[in-house]
Every structure is written in structure tokens, then in C-alpha cells.
Write a structure and sequence with these properties.
The protein is mainly α. Helix content is 51%, strand content 8%. Helix 10 crosses helix 14 (297-304). The N and C termini lie far apart (106 Å).
Length: 345
């Protein structure tokens, strides 16, 4: 009986080889090396646990793959039946054999995620939610998770200010914890690079203080060339005698947003004078308790190495730049020119 089973198995194997050899003829292999053709670029989502055969059959049903059974047979013969989960971009120039290789190696499509400079936590959250990277509740939970923040060297009670502005390449479906950890780690790496070269500025600020001041500099100007001088102005106010308040509008806007999540950004004199908040720098002295937005590298560098100046004031010239002044008289003239007369015209 044993010899009969061996002979039968051997015969079956030989028969299988003959069948496979016949199917995978030179013509069949030629088919597997032909571009997929006229189908437009297609996104294929392979879920976790998916097998190769139903994946190929699905591509056949969608008229993307002309010979799914042939490709599966080839995969079996070459022991290339692995398919990794993810989102794949299938172009018309791709051949079936390259498609098989792509699925087996997990060459998933990477998408760009752009985090601009100067966004606060809610703006970053809304962007990530709108672009379907994560859910708002997951973001909020992680942003205030002390253990998660500590694991990523965040020196504060929330993620605000530390979600580093950058262009990231990510696969769809990355977990929220991993995505936010990536943004926080990029901040830490950048901060370490910047401070390794220049220290933490003329006042030897703590990490949280430095990021807080950099976030104010980031919000006050979009002109890169001005950032070191803006930083100088705020340093002058921090050490001025008699004591100065920073009196910077973006901190009050942040305070108003904390008080009312639906605040529309329309700042009034009442906000400046009456809003009771540790972020209202028209009422408090020194820095607010934390960042008001995520500063970019240039703003961090400006705080580490500010320009040397005697200025205490700056006024917007309504073109993205500012006029700087060392005295109140100069400042008042600049306000008259760039605020009163400019808008009157």
C-alpha cells in the first residue's frame, strides 16, 4: 500500500508539472510581462488578512487584470503568494509580474501630509480630520495624554505647539498614535538640532519657554527675514526696565479661543483689556504659560539667535512686513501711517 501511494503521488506531481508547463508557455509568460493597458491609475486597498487569489480575482472582475488565474498560477509555481495589506497605486504601465512583486513586497502608496507653520492644536486636528487621517476624538485624547506626551519628550500638558510643521509621507491607515507620534518626534529632532548649535537663546530659556516664544514669533510675521528681529523685540520687552508686557495680539486670540471654541478671530479692545487669561499678554507680564501654535524651524532658530536691536515696537505695513521702532514716538508715527492713514485711504 505504501508503494502504491508513493507512485500515485509521484504520478500526480508529474501530471501537475506537465499541466503547469503547458500553461506557462512562452506565450503565457509574455502575457505576464505586458503592461496592464488602458485602465486609468487605480487605487487598490488590500485589507489585513487578505489572500492573493481573491485579490487577483477582484482585479480581474474590475477589468484591471486580464488574466488573474494565470498570474495566480504563476505565483503558486514561483512561491510568490504573499500579499501585504495597504493601499497600492496600479498604473497602466505596470505589468502583472511587477504587480505581483509590488503586492508581495508591500510597496504601498505614500501620501503627502502638509502641516503648515503656525497652526494651533485645533487647526491641526481639523486638517487631519478633514483629510481623513484620524478621528477628532482620537486626536483630542492623545493630545492631552500625559504618558503619550512624555514618551515623545513633550515638556507640557498638551500637544499644542509640538506638532511640527513639515511635509510628511505616510501610508493611509496609519494609526493615530503612530501619526501623532511622528509629528511630535519630528519636533524633538528639530529642536535638538537647533539648540545643539545655538543653545537656548540669550535668556537660556527652558524648552517650553523657547517654544512658547517661537510660537509668538511665528504668528507675528510670515516674512522669514523678519523673524530674528521680531524675536529681538520680544527679548527687549522681556528684560526691559521698568517691566514691559509683551502685548502681542496672537496670544489674546489664543486666549479667546480657549474661552470660546467658536471664537471667530475678530479681536476687540475689550478682549485686550478685559479677557482674564494667562495668555492675555496685554494684562500679564512675561511669557504666557505655553505655546499658542506650532512654530517652524525658522522661528525656533530666530529665538535661539535673535538679531541685535534696540527696538521695542513693530507695526504691520499691511504687506507681510513691519516697521520697527525703538521709541514710543516713532511707534505712534508708524501707527498713524500704517494703520490710521493707510486704511483711511
Amino acid at each position: 500500500m505504501k508503494r502504491v501511494r508513493v507512485a500515485s503521488s509521484l504520478g500526480g506531481a508529474l501530471l501537475l508539472l506537465l499541466v503547469v508547463g503547458g500553461v506557462l508557455s512562452a506565450l503565457a509568460l509574455h502575457e505576464l510581462d505586458q503592461p496592464l493597458g488602458a485602465t486609468p491609475v487605480t487605487l487598490l486597498v488590500v485589507p489585513k488578512g487578505a489572500a492573493l487569489r481573491p485579490t487577483l480575482m477582484r482585479l480581474g472582475d474590475e477589468k484591471i487584470l486580464a488574466h488573474p488565474k494565470l498570474l495566480y498560477l504563476y505565483a503558486r509555481l514561483t512561491r510568490a503568494t504573499t500579499v501585504l495589506a495597504g493601499e497600492y497605486e496600479i498604473s497602466p504601465t505596470l505589468t502583472p509580474r511587477l504587480l505581483l512583486k509590488m503586492l508581495g513586497e508591500g510597496r504601498i502608496k505614500l501620501w503627502s501630509l502638509v502641516i503648515p507653520e503656525g497652526l494651533n492644536r485645533w487647526q491641526v486636528r481639523d486638517k487631519l480630520v478633514a483629510e481623513k487621517w484620524l478621528r477628532a476624538e482620537d486626536f483630542d485624547c492623545l493630545c492631552d495624554d500625559r504618558d503619550f506626551l512624555a514618551a515623545h519628550a513633550v515638556p507640557g500638558p498638551s500637544c499644542d505647539g509640538y506638532l511640527f510643521p513639515e511635509t510628511y509621507s505616510l501610508a493611509r491607515g496609519v494609526p493615530a498614535r503612530e501619526l501623532m507620534g511622528m509629528l511630535l518626534d519630528r519636533f524633538h529632532a528639530t529642536y535638538t538640532e537647533v539648540t545643539a548649535r545655538g543653545g537656548t537663546g540669550p535668556l537660556a530659556l527652558s524648552t517650553r519657554e523657547l517654544v512658547t516664544l517661537a510660537s509668538i514669533v511665528e504668528k507675528e510675521t510670515g516674512a522669514a527675514v523678519e523673524r530674528p528681529r521680531i524675536a529681538c523685540v520680544f527679548y527687549n520687552r522681556l528684560v526691559g526696565k521698568p517691566r514691559w508686557r509683551l502685548q502681542t495680539d496672537p496670544t489674546v486670540i489664543y486666549a479667546a479661543t480657549l474661552a470660546d471654541p467658536h471664537f471667530d478671530g475678530n479681536l476687540t479692545r475689550q478682549h485686550l483689556r478685559e479677557l482674564d487669561s494667562a495668555y492675555n499678554t496685554y494684562r500679564i507680564y512675561g511669557l504666557p504659560p505655553g505655546p499658542i501654535a506650532s512654530p517652524g524651524r525658522a522661528a525656533l532658530e530666530a529665538v535661539v539667535a535673535p538679531e541685535t536691536c534696540k527696538d521695542f515696537f513693530f507695526v504691520s505695513k499691511n504687506n507681510g512686513h513691519h516697521e520697527f521702532c525703538a521709541t514710543l514716538d516713532c511707534h505712534n508715527r508708524a501707527v498713524q501711517k500704517w494703520q490710521v492713514e493707510y486704511f483711511r485711504r
